[in-house]
């Protein structure tokens, strides 16, 4: 009898089995890649990953932009109110100018509603009262109108800085300009406003056009011009005439 027949068969070495398994796996991958649907599927998966990464990056970029815009808004306003420039900031803007009428030729217009002067006669006081429903109030400005009921350009009465641009429910579109030393000019019943909060304007710069408002709607197109000195309304006629 052959001695080799009595010997038990030896198992194949483990590394040989690993090589056989690897070869089999490699052949399986090659067969998978040869199928028609595999390449498009791989391409679509890669594209989806790229799009997702781009979306994430864009979202992060938008967040940065929103944050920047919020910062700008915070710098422009504090608690919803316009930031008031200091007198020192306004020192070099006025340069010794005198207050003027906020129109090119005041002679072409007429005063439709005067300033309420406590020292005036009873007759003149009665002409300077504004009625809103059953309420009567002193008129703390001067209303200018065109005799032909036409609009006209509104100018800065003095060089300064725009500190308020607002839409008031009764007074209409409003602009305020600070000039330093507690002096502020007020422009109401406007249309086509062309300035923004923070703008520095020179005397004579067109800031808007005359328009309409609810409080004085009977006047039609007009400009309400007011002057404040340390938050107290003063007669614009007197302030302009002051030397």
From TrEMBL:
GO molecular function annotations of the record: metalloendopeptidase activity
InterPro entries: Cell_wall_metabolism_enzyme, Dup_hybrid_motif, M23ase_b-sheet_dom
Compositional bias of kind Polar residues: 65-76
Sequence intervals crossing the membrane: 37-57
Residue ranges constituting the M23ase beta-sheet core domain according to the UniProt record: 138-236
Biased composition (Basic and acidic residues): 1-12
Keywords: Membrane, Transmembrane, Transmembrane helix
Region listing for Disordered, in residue ranges: 1-25, 62-85
UniProt-listed Pfam families: Peptidase_M23
Listed PANTHER family: PEPTIDASE-RELATED, STAGE II SPORULATION PROTEIN Q
Name of the featured protein: M23ase beta-sheet core domain-containing protein
Naturally occurring in which organism (per UniProt): Paenibacillus radicis
């Amino acid at each position: 009898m052959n001695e080799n027949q009595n010997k038990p068969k030896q198992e194949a070495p483990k590394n040989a089995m690993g090589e056989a398994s690897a070869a089999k796996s490699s052949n399986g991958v090659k067969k998978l890649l040869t199928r028609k649907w595999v390449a498009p599927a791989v391409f679509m998966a890669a594209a989806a990953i790229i799009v997702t990464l781009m979306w994430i990056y864009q979202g992060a970029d938008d967040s940065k932009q929103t944050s920047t815009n919020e910062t700008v808004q915070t710098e422009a306003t504090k608690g919803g109110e316009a930031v008031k420039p200091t007198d020192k900031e306004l020192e070099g803007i006025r340069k010794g100018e005198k207050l003027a009428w906020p129109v090119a030729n005041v002679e072409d217009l007429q005063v439709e509603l005067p300033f309420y002067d406590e020292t005036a006669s009873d007759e003149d006081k009665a002409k300077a009262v504004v009625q809103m429903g059953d309420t009567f109030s002193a008129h703390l400005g001067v209303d200018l109108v065109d005799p032909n009921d036409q609009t006209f350009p509104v100018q800065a009465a003095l060089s300064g800085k725009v500190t308020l641009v607002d839409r008031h429910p009764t007074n209409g579109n409003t602009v305020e300009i600070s000039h330093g030393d507690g002096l502020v000019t007020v422009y109401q019943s406007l249309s086509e406003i062309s300035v923004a909060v923070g703008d520095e304007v020179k005397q004579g710069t067109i800031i808007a056009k005359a328009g309409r408002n609810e409080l004085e709607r009977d006047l039609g197109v007009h400009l309400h011009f007011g002057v404040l000195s340390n938050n107290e309304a003063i007669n614009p006629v007197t302030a302009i005439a002051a030397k």
